[in-house]
Amino acid sequence: MPKATMPPLPLSALFGIVKPSGPTSMSVINDVKLLVSRSKLFVAADKLEKSASKKKVNLRKPGDIKIGQGGTLDPLADGVLVVGIGKGTKKLSQFLECTKEYRTTCLLGVETDTYDSEGSRVRLAPWRHVTREQVENALAKFRGEIQQTPPIFSALKMDGRPLYEYARKGIPLPRPIEARKATVYSLEITEWKDTHNFRWPAQTFSEEDKQAMEKALQGAGETAVLEDKEEIPGDDESPTAFVLKMRVSSGTYVRSIVHDLAHELGSAGHVVTLSRTRQGRFALDATEEGDQQCVPWEVLEKASTDTEVDEDGLRLWEREVLARLEVVESAQSAIDTDPNPDRCHPSPVSPRADRAG
C-alpha cells in the first residue's frame, strides 16, 4: 500500500468503494456504516470508549454516524460507489450531476422487461446477421446529445403511478413516456464475443403479461406487438455478445442505449454485465490528474475478521480507506473554523507520515 498521512481525527470525508455485483447499494452502505461507526478515523475517541464500556454491544447495529452515497447502483451493477461520512454527506450532490463512465456487455437475441439479465424474456429476435462492423457503424447514432425514452418497466412515475405498474396491470398510459436528453461523450466497442458463458434469462413473459404491456403502451398511442422471431442457438453456439465502453452525462440510461442499439441492428438485446468505472473524480483506474482510487470491496468484506492493528492503532481496512479518502473536515479544521473556539473539542492527533500496513 502507498504511504498515507494521518490527519487530525476524527474525519468527515468522501471515498469511493468498489461495489460488487449482487447486493443492493443500501445493503453495501449499511455494511460500511457498521465499520465506520466503530472506527477512530470517523468517531471521536471518547465516544468509542463510551460505546466499548457498555456491557452489551450489538455488533450488527451501527452507531450514530452520518453516511450516504452519491448515486445508487442496481444489484446487477458493480463498480464505483461514492460514500460520504459526516459532513462529507453534504458534498454527495455533486456526484449526481457529474460525468460517469461505464463498461457494459450486451447479449443479442432477447429483449427483457428490465433491459437486463435480471428481467423476464419479452421477445426473441434474430441475431446471427449482426457483425462487429455493423455495431461500430450504428454507434455513431448514439454519440453526442441524444433523446432517451425510459423503459416502461421502471420506477419513474406518471400521474403518481410507477410506470411498471401500468405495464404489469395492463393500465393504458395516459400519454407517451417523455423522452429525456442525455449526452454521450464517447462510445466504443472494446470486445466482440463469439463464444462466452452468458445465457438468455430462463424466466419468460406469459401471453397475459405481453397483452398487459401492449395495452399499456397502446394507451399512449404507441404500437407494441411483442412477437417472437426465434433464432435459437445450437448446442455449441452462443448468441453474439459485445462489450461497450462509454462516458456519459448524468441521467443517461445505459440499459436504454443497449436496448435501442439492438433495435437499430435489427435485433433485440439486453445488458448482462454493467460496471461503473468512473463517477466524477473517483475511478477504478486512476488515469487522469486528480483521480481518486477506490477501496476494493474485498478489503471491507474481510474487515470483520481483521483484528490486527498497526503502530497507529489502525486496522488494514482503515489504512486502505485513509490512503484513498478525501478529507472534507478533520478535528483540527473544525477547531480552526469554529466561531466558538473556547468550546471543548477532542484533542487532535499530530499529523505524520506513516508506512502503510
UniProtKB/TrEMBL annotation:
Alphabetized UniProt keyword annotations: Isomerase, tRNA processing
GO cellular component terms attached to this protein's record: nucleus
Ranges for region Disordered: 332-357
Coiled coil: none
GO biological process entries: mRNA pseudouridine synthesis; tRNA modification
One Pfam family per UniProt: TruB_N
Xref: NCBIfam families: TruB (TIGR00431)
Name under which the protein is recorded: tRNA pseudouridine(55) synthase
